[in-house]
Amino acid sequence: EAPALASVCSERVRLAGAANVLSFAADGKIHADNTDGLGLVADITRNAGLALAGRDVLLVGAGGAAAGVLGPLLQAGVRHITVANRTLARAQALVQAHAGLASLQKAELLALTPQALEANFDLIINATASSLAGDAVPVPAHVLRPGSMAYDMMYGPAAQGFLDWARQHGAVPRDGLGMLVEQAAEAFALWRGVRPPSAQVLKELQATV
How many whole angstroms separate alpha carbon 130 and alpha carbon 65? Predict the structure, then answer.
């Protein structure tokens, strides 16, 4: 509902179909933006040190969390993204909504069900609620390459099962705490014009868990 309240919506909001930040300008206009994808990309590239240019990515899920990050992932220069979802039609709709951006970025974009996955990937991102619900990992282990990064947007105890699965299959596990911090830093910058020291904030948070 947030974009409907706004006078101006960013391209990220249009692609995601949702906003998580509203800014109030001096002229009375309300600007809507979505910082989730920016936060994810920042955590992967800056905090985890994984360059995304030329990478093959598996995005698991086709709901709001996946929609919020697909655009920024494409803009980060990835080579290929497969969107895998139990309901194929939802994955296809998400892919179709981003087809123009994928073409502009010269990136491959594909929709599949988890059962149809045959390839392996440099980066696997779990954008489903499987960890929160305590469900099994929603994709087979053969999607991992040796040294792949397996990223769960969940963090804390909820993400532990996914992280253990990744580690057991030779992948590099990472939870979504950094994404949480980085998307908040982007929102703060939109509001205040100053980007807080997100790496320091993340380090302090990690020291408390």
Answer: 12
Per DSSP, the residues of 92-128 read HHHHHHTHHHHHHTT-EEEEE-GGG----EEEEEE-S
Please work out, in degrees rounded to the nearest 5, the angle formed at the alpha carbon of residue 41 by the alpha carbons of 201 and 45.
75
Q: How far apart are CA 24 and CA 115, in angstroms?
A: 45
Stretches where the chain sits below pLDDT 50 are none
pTM score above 0.70: yes
DSSP H helical ranges for the chain: 2-5, 11-16, 36-42, 64-75, 88-97, 99-104, 130-133, 160-168, 177-192, 198-206
What angle, rounded to 10 degrees, do the helices at 177-192 and 198-206 form? 140
Q: Which residues pair with 81 in a beta bridge?
A: 57, 109
Q: Cα dihedral sign for 37, 40, 45, 50?
A: negative
Residue of 1, 5, 12 lying closest to 187 (CA atoms): 12
Task: Reduce the DSSP state of residue 60 to 3 states and report it.
Answer: strand
Cα(204)–Cα(58) distance, rounded to whole angstroms?
A: 30
DSSP one-letter code for 33: E
Q: What's the confidence (pLDDT) of residue 124?
A: 98
Per-residue model confidence as pLDDT tens digits over 12-56: 999 999 999 999 999 999 999 999 999 999 999 999 999 999 999
Residue 76, SS3? Answer: coil
